[in-house]
């Protein structure tokens, strides 16, 4: 009949096997219920008994469902356990305890148990009754009513009731107990071990990926452990070869502390493959070279998308990225003519970008164009028009850049003359000159054809050629302007500043050109300059004057005293044609196609 009255406090059911509450189970349920009520979790409306009775119990499955908490709430439960366990039992030995009442109370709550009890009662006058003590010493307390009721209780309840009643009797100062505590200690020790293992299992993560759970192709990867010295040494060798300082410090710390290392086999295999690649001596074929080239270029494309699309939330055209990719491939083809490099298409690049970024970007088709945008952004009409303008600017810039790179460079001869320095090493392309004239003058034809516009467009075009060619092609402006500034200021710092801004050649190049022009002038046996026609029928004028530059210095150095001469001549067209023919003949005599180019001199030593 007592079993018919037993019910589960969680599901309110009377079926199946119902286990009565014991003190530790009831205490744990009360702590879990307090957490569920505080954070408004499921099962917060459960009503638990305030004390142990013969009717309230639980099913195992209901108990497991009720006590199961998430990890973040489990920590609160462990803190409550520590707080309750740290509270001392303040039991004073001076308080008199009625042994008969204590034993009777505990025996009514316990089941079949045999407790040898040594009783030594003391009275206020210090006299003892030896007969009662000897009789109680040799007696065993086996209450019949408890023994009869214990047959209806489960074994785990009986054991816990025995432990509880034994500990209650032991707390009294008037009763000395001699009991076998091996079972009690074993049970408590096992419970602690399970709790420690459960807490430690949460902290076990993979050494490589720093995760406790990992899936590969919908399969859960098991977490393995090892404490072998060879395993430590193997990982240290890998990380040392791969230059992975973070994992190297981590494995050294684990080795010094003699801690167990946990890992996934898949993560270990990935690092093993990287290690084998680094130590392998397999010669790289053309396929490997092409793969590395594509990998470097794609990484550059990825960095561009991350900077423009993900961080700045701009939109980028897929066709512009593909053109950028193919331009880099063409450049690599020039550097490595033997490499078999093929250009890519927009669809191929789109697949690679989708596979790499997955859900962080979106690719939208508008007006037969594919546009890459951030996943959290939407494409507006202003963005689309701005993107079209940017694509147009990029196309114009690439056309002009290609025209500059295809310029025919005319190197300066070994014997430099004044006209060579004025002409420079190139002629400004028509596309570049037209672009800057329209850029400066706009649609005003009169302004575009003016002298000022021509001068500015020539200057800007020369700067563009010098910057795009990285200084390998020297236009007329960059030679003559540099020599003029050097002659007027004699300042190396000013020349270098203008060179860094792309307006003239560097100081070293200007010194070399001046020295070569001086050597060519000294080697001529004629006193008159090469442009002067020695003809008595032509009117020729000569003027000389002293050029003195005084600098206020204490020692009087760095002063200049020079004599400058000017010669001028009036010539007609026939005489000018004769002069050009003579210069061409002289150039053909000085230039030797078989002679290798000599290094230009920066200083001149004249022997008198």
Automatic annotation (TrEMBL):
Superkingdom in the source lineage: Eukaryota
Chain intervals for the UniProt region annotation (Disordered): 110-137, 577-603
Biased composition (Low complexity): 120-133
UniProt name for this protein: Uncharacterized protein
Organism of this sequence: Microctonus aethiopoides
